[in-house]
Amino acid sequence: MSTKNWPLWEVFVRSKNGLEHRHFGSLHAADADMALENARDVYTRRNEGVSIWVVESKNITASNPEHNGEMFEPAQDKVYRHPTFYDLPDEVKHM
Amino acid sequence: MSPERKATIMSEEQIKNLEKQFEERIARDEKIEPKDWMPEKYRKTHIRQMSQHAHSEIVGMLPEGNWITRAPSLRRKVALLAKVQDEAGHGLYLYSATETLGISRDEMYEQLHTGKAKYSSIFNYPTITWADMGAIGWLVDGAAIINQVPLCNTSYGPYARAMIRVCKEESFHQRQGFEIMLKLSNGTPEQKEMAQDALNRWWWPALMMLGPTDAESVHTEQSMKWKLKRKSNDDLRQQFIDQTVPQADILGLTIPDPDLKWNEERGSYDFGEINWDEFWQVVKGHGPCNKERMKARVGAWERGEWVRDAAMAYAEKSQERKKKQVI
Question: What is the pTM of this model?
Answer without folding.
Answer: 0.91
